[in-house]
């Protein structure tokens, strides 16, 4: 039997699957994070390679797809590809698998997200968790990416953006240079702070991750549910931000289907209305799809796609 | 003769002055940065102590005022006070100066900025360079601070905020999820990048400082001067942000004078109009003052003020 291996690696974990020829999941494994900007190249590579090693059994390997957070620039790609190539050759010597004869796709994790929507390299996907990025295929088959500029200047509508804006509102409410908001008390209580000003110590610790800021999203949602106008506005703005990303993508890909992938799906009810307002004037017939596959299965399916970057041995 | 010593320490340099009893500057020295969050506690303390040592000559010391960036929380203050105390005692043994008998004031650098306006512990100051914070004295003589929550959630209208918003606009223009702006080309050219996307590598380097982001302000100003609506809007927004900080402070201090301190003074002409619009409805008679003294002289004058924190020996 031939299998495909898929690796979906992010800032908190790496998921690995082995699929049989019918697409059925034979094995499903988990390793620690593999965003190399967060855990370093050695650790990231090791987690990926151990995942692939553990997914291998007696079957021959037809292809490997690796869909990774943190692979944004050409330099990122080359760094990671060079490291993975070396380690795959070492793993090949130990296991007898000739990785150099197997297609090994390596792309940013939004590519696995796109494949997870319908199992096809087509359409559009909006991948929004801690960050936010949209990807689609234009009528000429070319990949179009919109957003994903990172937490400091992009990622509008992602969880970090929502959490950060809640902290901005909390500070402005406390100092009274912005409108009063319940976020002042709900966030302070949620984080177990004695005083609002302690948010500075909390936020600027070197170990503070974007994911932890994004974990304030449920507090924003709960505060909005209690009728707080500012918390509601932040969620409305997130819907608009994701809507703008989507609208820009749809203009370029001219495809009227959009898969929604990532944690943002959990709060879609709160942002759907402003998202739709932003998108529907121009694209009233857009269809929102829930992905059929997991991102790691999406990654495995990437191995067969010619339009994505493969590691050259 | 008796002298006062003033230390104004920030993220790029430390300025030290010795004043005679009439307030005349006898000596003016410069040491490297002393924001301990940026250079570490050992380096920060050493730069301050060496500055004080070099400012000492034969005169007796009447007071020392230390006005430091990075002293925001009670923990920051205690850390720095404990370290300075130890080092001042060591310096005292070498120089014969009994620092424990001399008032040594230690405060955040906005306090030295307040003193620099008129040499008095009264009124209001808006200190905006890379960050932005406002400080004033209320009718009961109590210190009111507004803003200064740092670059991630505060500092509206400061140089980092202006630079970051220009990068946001640049990304949105490139991906066409926001309006087209000349900032796309002017920033790329200014930073010597071949492609707009290289801004990601530039911005997220571990060594990238807030000050470097703030150094994009002249590019924003130049782009605004060429008529770019987005660049103009960013400057208008900065004026509004500083206006909101100021308005909140004036409501609490009920004093109608404001000193403007820091790099923002260099672009005041571009933000003055929206600043005034924000403040003048409520405070039409606000008087804007240019500081009479330098921040290091302001720091020296702090030594005589009882309402500020002193190091206890």
Automatic annotation (TrEMBL), chains A, B:
Pfam families: BcrAD_BadFG. Residues 5-302 form the ATPase BadF/BadG/BcrA/BcrD type domain. InterPro entries: ATPase_BadF, ATPase_NBD, Euk-type_GlcNAc_Kinase. PANTHER family: N-ACETYL-D-GLUCOSAMINE KINASE. This is ATPase BadF/BadG/BcrA/BcrD type domain-containing protein.
């Amino acid at each position: 039997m031939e299998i495909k291996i898929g690796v979906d690696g992010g800032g908190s974990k790496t998921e690995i699957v082995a699929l049989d020829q019918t697409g059925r999941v034979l094995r499903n494994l988990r390793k620690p994070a593999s965003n190399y900007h967060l855990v370093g190249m050695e650790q990231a590579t090791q987690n990926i390679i151990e995942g692939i090693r553990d997914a291998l059994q007696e079957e021959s390997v037809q292809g490997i797809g690796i869909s990774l957070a943190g692979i944004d620039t050409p330099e990122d790609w080359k760094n990671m590809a060079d490291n993975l190539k070396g380690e795959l050759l070492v793993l090949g010597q130990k296991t007898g698998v000739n990785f150099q004869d197997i297609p090994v796709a390596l792309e940013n994790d939004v590519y696995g997200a796109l494949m997870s929507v319908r199992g096809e390299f087509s359409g559009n996907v909006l991948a929004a968790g801690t960050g936010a990025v949209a990807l689609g295929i234009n009528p000429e088959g070319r990949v179009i990416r919109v957003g994903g500029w990172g937490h400091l200047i992009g990622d509008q509508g992602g969880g970090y953006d929502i959490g950060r804006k809640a902290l901005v509102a909390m500070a402005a409410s406390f100092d009274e240079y912005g409108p009063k908001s319940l976020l002042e008390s709900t966030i302070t209580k949620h984080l177990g702070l004695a005083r609002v000003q302690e948010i500075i110590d909390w936020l600027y610790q070197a170990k503070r991750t974007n994911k932890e800021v994004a974990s304030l999203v449920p507090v924003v949602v709960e505060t909005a549910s209690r009728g707080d106008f500012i918390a509601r506005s932040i969620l409305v703005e997130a819907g608009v931000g994701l809507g703008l990303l989507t609208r820009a993508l749809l203009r370029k890909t001219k495809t009227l289907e959009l898969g929604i992938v990532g944690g943002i799906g959990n709060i879609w009810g709160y942002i759907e209305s402003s998202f739709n307002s932003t998108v529907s004037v121009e694209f009233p017939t857009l269809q929102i799809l829930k992905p059929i596959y997991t991102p790691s299965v999406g990654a495995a399916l990437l191995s067969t796609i010619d339009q994505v970057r493969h590691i050259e041995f």
